[in-house]
Amino acid sequence: xxxxxxxxxxxxxxxxxxxxxxxxxxxxxxxxxxxxxxxxxxxxxxxxxxxxxxxxxxxxxxxxxxxxxxxxxxxxxxxxxxxxxxxxxxxxxxxxxxxxxxxxxxxxxxxxxxxxxxxxxxxxxxxxxxxxxxxxxxxxxxxxxxxxxxxxxxxxx
Length: 157
Ligand code: FES
Hints:
It holds the Pfam family Rieske_4. Residues 17-131 form the Rieske domain. InterPro entries: Rieske_2Fe-2S (IPR017941), Rieske_2Fe-2S_sf (IPR036922), Sol_Rieske_ferrdox_dom (IPR054716). By secondary structure, the chain is mostly beta strands. It is 15% helix and 40% strand. The chain is built from three helices and eleven strands, in the order αβαββββββββββα. The protein has helices at 3-14, 23-29, 143-146, and strands at 18-22, 31-36, 39-46, 49-54, 68-72, 75-79, 86-88, 93-98, 109-115, 119-125, 128-132. The strands form two sheets. Strands 1-11-10-4-3-2 form a six-stranded antiparallel β-sheet, with helices on one face. The protein has a five-stranded antiparallel β-sheet with strand order 5-6-7-8-9, with no helix packed on it. The chain is globular and about 65 Å long. It starts with a helix and ends in an 11-residue tail after the last helix. The mean pLDDT is 91. Bound molecules: FE2/S2 (inorganic) cluster. The site of FE2/S2 (inorganic) cluster has 9 residues, from loops. FE2/S2 (inorganic) cluster is lined by residues 57, 59-62, 80, 82-83, 85.
């Protein structure tokens, strides 16, 4: 096997789906954590939908699996237990409230900082839950805590 095809194989392997548990179990616990190809993720079951994201908060690496889920501006968010940043479950956007300093009487508005937390794909097959890591090419802030020195699962090399 040449170098190029073995690199291609390991790239394909990195994005193959991994079984992380049984549907019944996650429905009961409403969240589970898993390691998918050396990347720590949390999978939430919320209002009939599954959402997987990097487990460490994009802000400073807080443990999102210990946060509460709340709706902000009608969007379900995980609230990081460390500094209360709000991250949408569906898209990984960071939400914040802004006020118009020229009009202090106006109501604060919810705004998006853009996608900050990497979201992964969840599929269900025959009662099993699978996670496929995101292949989105953009750099996501949560990547910093999912790789390198912050990664809990060290590769053996
Ligand atoms: Fe999550 Fe600061 S580490 S809000």
